[in-house]
Amino acid sequence: MLELRNITKIYGQQASAVRALDRITLGVNDGEFVAITGPSGSGKSTTLSIFGILETPTAGEYLIEGIPVQNLAKQVLALLRNNRFGFVFQTFNLLPRTSALENVMLPLIYAGVGTRERTARAKAALDSVGLPGRYDAHPNQLSGGQQQRVAIARAIVNNPSVILADEPTGNLDSKMGKEIMQLIQNLNRDRGITVLMVTHDASCAAYATREVSFLDGKIERDRSNA
User: What pTM was estimated for this model as a whole?
Assistant: First the structure.
């Protein structure tokens, strides 16, 4: 479904150049839950960004269902990013002055969905992550765990085939972190959404069906958690 071939990513130039990824090859099958682990600076988040078409590799090839991404027009890439992928971040990335419902509706606005449909879909998404009736709550009225639930609702409102999560429990206590991981695991199991998750937490990685460990920009280990 998703495939990186001999991907290299270099930041900076000449003496200040940093090789974040060094010729990595990694394939992800439809319906997998993959945890990407490793120490800080090992290339985890860079890999996730390339999968999500947020960054372009310096060298190598990224294919989605066999189609090379680098051959696609910018408008097509933007549509792919909005329709195929849902993003969940450590810092939630919610707009502070808008309600939970309005935050969740944002991807639908970008997709050109009409007001009535996007309202109904956003409410359904919030209901599905355990926040029925909190449509009008603003981020400062919600706990960290509830804010991350809003972020997950926003990630799934477009019915993506892939969720990309970067340290989704990093700002949560252990109890809330467990609840969020169970929610992400359920989305993978019950809806068949492919999940790629960056984490430094072994207890979070244990929820995945596969763990890919990075070190110094290279894949150190790729193993099944089954």
Answer: 0.94
